[in-house]
Design a protein that fits this description.
With 292 residues, the protein is α+β, with helices and mostly antiparallel strands. It is 24% helix and 21% strand. The strands form four sheets. The protein has a five-stranded antiparallel β-sheet. Strands 1-10-2 form a three-stranded antiparallel β-sheet. Strand 7 and strand 8 form a beta hairpin. The longest helix has 13 residues. It starts with a strand and ends in a 10-residue tail after the last strand.
């Protein structure tokens, strides 16, 4: 499993730097597969601001973006996306940089007789989502010229550990591994108290368990007035460090909780699962049943 160093440090309160922490974990119980700095993964990628846009003189589907990359420097980039406008802050891959997702080396190249000095990046090219329809638009308060790592608060280290099946029940989560770290350092894990107010309204959520032996407990909650959008940068950073691809706030928060406490979650559109007064049915599959 891949763990975020920052996340483990936050929960365990260890004072060890990544190199010290991975050495201790490797010596005291878990095989270290690898550790990787996210800063290295996103090096040479900077924040740029669209200074101007104009149509490519030799291609109807391309445009030329003049991009301010800080230090009174601007670069001209040929771009095929049309979701950007003047003033937008965008990720810029300068010549020589390597895209995190496909390891493509960005080169200065000629496109229809116009030189493109780099590349404006979409989410999927950075491994930060699945969107390839347009360029990733960064927060308006991102500073021109700063590294993408700084802008997205992704200064973290990926720690990949081999967790054997006999420890899966308690260590395939950040809280579980943080507890191990505390034990290795002869400390107790300080866990925050969580309080839940339980209510039951079958009009909102009616769950029927048909096989209590196979599934003795299934719980759910209804959340109203949810607006789907991107997750905050700090959450995306922890998901990326854990080798999860950010999708949107609803999907990301279920993955985040799963990675934090080891309990799988799933989000449903309530309007699409309600049928005959029952929201969720838990049962074994029927013979030759196929699910899509």
């Amino acid at each position: 499993m891949n763990y975020s160093y920052n996340w483990l440090k936050d929960i365990s309160q260890t004072e060890k730097i990544p190199e010290e922490l991975t050495k201790m974990i490797g010596l005291k119980g878990f095989e270290l597969e690898r550790s990787e700095s996210l800063a290295e993964r996103f090096k040479d990628l900077v924040v740029g601001e669209i200074a101007s846009l104009e149509k490519h003189p030799n291609a109807d589907r391309l445009q030329l973006a003049r991009v301010d990359i800080g230090g009174e420097k601007t670069v001209e980039v040929v771009c095929g996306a049309w979701n950007i406008k003047k003033g937008d802050k965008v990720p810029v891959a300068l010549p020589g940089s390597i895209l995190p997702q496909n390891k493509l080396v960005v080169e200065k190249r000629e496109v229809r007789s116009v030189v493109s000095n780099g590349m404006l990046c979409a989410e999927d090219e950075l491994g930060l989502g699945k969107d390839h329809e347009g360029i990733m638009i960064l927060d308006a308060d991102s500073k021109v010229g700063q590294t993408l790592v700084e802008a997205l608060n992704m200064e973290d280290t990926v720690i990949e550990l081999d967790v054997l099946p006999d420890r899966a029940h308690d260590c395939l989560s950040h809280e579980g591994m943080a507890s191990e770290i505390c034990a290795m350092e002869n400390r107790k894990l300080k866990q925050e108290e969580r309080e839940f107010k339980q209510t039951h309204d079958p009009k909102l959520l009616n769950i029927r368990i048909e096989d209590e032996e196979g599934c003795p407990r299934y719980i759910g909650a209804v959340l109203k007035n949810i607006k789907i959008g991107p997750s905050p940068a700090w959450m995306q950073s922890r998901l990326v460090a854990s080798s999860m691809e950010p999708i949107n706030n609803v999907v990301d928060v279920t993955n985040y909780v799963m990675l934090e406490i080891g309990n799988p979650l799933h989000a449903f559109d309530h309007s699409r699962i309600e049928k005959n007064g029952v929201s969720i049915v838990v049962r074994k599959a029927k013979k030759d049943e196929q699910l899509e």
